[in-house]
Amino acid sequence: MVTRAATNPEGVTGEFKGDIEVSNKLPSKGDLERIADLPVLDDAGEAHAFKTLYSSTAEARRVLIIFIRHFFCGNCQEYLRALSSVFTPETLLELESPTQIVVIGHGQPDVIPFYVKETACPFPIYADPTKKIHTLLGMTRTLNLGNKAPEYMQDSVMVNAVKSIFQELRSGRNILKGGDLYQVGGEFLFENGKVTWCHRMKNTRDHTEIPELRAVLGLDGGRPPMPKRWGTGLGRALSNRRQSWSRSRSGTRRKSPPRGVMSKVPEETRRDEANGAIHESTNGIAAAQASA
Length: 292
Hints:
Elements: H1 29-35, E1 39-41, E2 47-49, H2 51-54, E3 62-67, H3 74-86, H4 89-93, E4 99-105, H5 112-119, E5 125-127, H6 132-136, H7 157-170, E6 186-191, E7 194-200, H8 210-216, H9 232-250, H10 259-263, H11 267-291
Parallel strand pairs: 3-4, 4-5
Antiparallel strand pairs: 1-2, 3-6, 6-7
Helix pairs in contact: 5-9, 7-11
């Protein structure tokens, strides 16, 4: 059941359990025109027009763009691990309609290499620190957990909350660069410059389940294999493979994003990141204990 959650003036839901009301209405032509030239940043801090991510290429006619939460979100990390165990860039290109997957977070691009190492994600990852694309595509802000854990999650809310805290501590200087803890994402399938299917998250764990995503992409309806738990060696190998896409394009080592880009990030976003971390983790642990 979908419940309407109370919101504060900034639009953050005041409830913790249940879902918030969102629409999965497809973005209009006008919506796409407004976001087409907005910048997303790669792991070297280089800006790319958003439309370049979904423009049809000789390789892929469809692009599935997955918008995640902040880069330290354990729920989204589990989702990408599950996704990577079922889909690979090679198998997606072999579909009747060749497809690519692109991931977009809303933290700083400095955190992308750390995120790749943690998730072994083989798909390109970009950052939208201003969250303008998230907002214009109708994705919302909440800390609601939903009423039940999704199938793709192998760890409890409590375990993921603790992992998130330790990741932030291990990230060193990037501890405040993960992104807005309240901002949730969704999935959008682009074909020929238009969105033909989309799903906006109703809570912090509401990514599209893998079986539904298989059906959307035209794969068989069988139950996908359980996500693999990546070993350190395999994870590092896949991480290196994933990072090669960026190095092959630039031929240079990663550098920090331009100061101009950093200055565009709203001050309130940085306050959200600093003040929200303990709030989210504490709420997550409390929810897990309450449902036990």
